[in-house]
From TrEMBL:
Lineage of producing organism: Eukaryota, Viridiplantae, Streptophyta, Embryophyta, Tracheophyta
Family the entry assigns: Belongs to the tyrosinase family.
Organism superkingdom: Eukaryota
Disulphide bridges, residue numbers: C11-C28, C27-C91
Protein's name in the database: Tyrosinase copper-binding domain-containing protein
Cofactor section: Cu(2+)
Organism: Eleusine coracana subsp. coracana
Cofactor note: Binds 2 copper ions per subunit.
Residues of the full protein shown: 79 to 430 of 577
Amino acid sequence: GGPIVTDQLWCSKPEIPADVPQPPSQCCPPMSASPPINFTFPDPTGPIRTRRPVHEVGPEYMAKYERVVALMKALPKSDPRSFHQQAQIHCAYCTGAHRQVGFSELPVQVHYSWFFFPFHRAYLYFFERIARKLLDDPEFTVPFWSWDIPEGMQIPSKFVNKSSPLYDAIRDPSHQPPKLVDLDFWQVEKNLTGEQQIQQNMWVMYKQIVSSASLPSLFHGQPYRAGDLPMPGAGTVEVAPHNTVHAWIGNGWYPNGEDMGAYYTAGRDPIFYPFHSNIDRIWEAWRDIRQAAKGNNRSQTDFTDHAWLDSSFLFYDEEARLVRVTVRDMLDIKKLGYRFSKVAMPWATARP
Ligand code: C2O
């Protein structure tokens, strides 16, 4: 099979198990009156913006992110740039609301496949463009929550302040700060000392990014092409720390661990975006580590299959225009106009 293509006309009610609270109607985006436009890169002479870690940006910068979420929440729910609709994008691409163009019986699911990293990069990229427009701040970037280093191993305080727009009531109350995140959380509390938890987290990172991810398919996930059934297999990082941290934040007493622990609600928690900003950074980190080990050969880190490169997803931009984005468009963050500020990666050498 070739690339997987989604289209607004091929979106319908998601497949959510009947024993789970159903979303209000469905999670397809509002219809665009005009067909999607193809993605084009920003002006190459424009600024390269830096995404920085939450624990370094300071309260004033975090107040900007609070404003972004407040402004998005203030937009009418029908506006594709509203917080509600931004969360719905995740619901639509992650519960099978979209159908493969040409295969109406086949739901599209970006998880547990080689689309995991590029889809979420694109999702966050458009979220960020909308944020800049609403803030009227051309420099704004979504800070990353660096849960992979000791300085970032708690939920950042802004997110647990009940009067902040970043607060979400549907989280596990026992995982509030100063509790340290468990990157290998499988619904069982380990009750380690702080030092032990940090060490464990380092080992998880080393294993998932360095020692067990020596091939693109191991890191990214398995090939998923037109005509295939969804979820062929996840990459290392998607399973842990990605899924494990989702589950650790969500409320385990809810049927599906809502909000962060369930695909259809994860995007409703404002921590989702800084969390995924760090996932996006880890993609870059893995690529740097692999390319350094393999003589800067891109085929060691990117698939060359056109079924990957030319698969496409739809997002609304800051002007509420529907844009078609391919995986190929998402492979060079410099061309997308951003970079990550360097933070230490103590796990890169944490061989157990
Ligand atoms: Cu689409 Cu972190 O999940």
